[in-house]
Amino acid sequence: MLSLPSSTRVFVCRESTDMRCSFDKLSALTQQTLNQDPLSGHLFVFLNRVRTHIKVLYFDCTGLAIWYKRLERGTFSVPALEEISYRDLVCMLEGLQVKKLRFSRRNMHIPSVESEQRCY
Description:
120 residues; alpha+beta; globular
């Protein structure tokens, strides 16, 4: 979806949101309900009442952007927390309901500097 720095946080508005809202209204909701600055570079997730539409508001250093998705079938699962990880957001967008992930040591590979250079 997005290429983000590791310091980026993901905040979910737990109240249902009118999907007709655009930049100004979503920015105001970010400040009022999440108590966050919409220009911080973090992701702010909004869902409609029936959880079939999702909007993600973010600032990419040049301006605000909205990522929008509408499901043809099913609903998005709403996380229990107001702040989730980027991995949880991706799972939510893919339709996975992840309550708690646990990783074993073998899955926690931290790439070396050389392998990072090969990826680019």
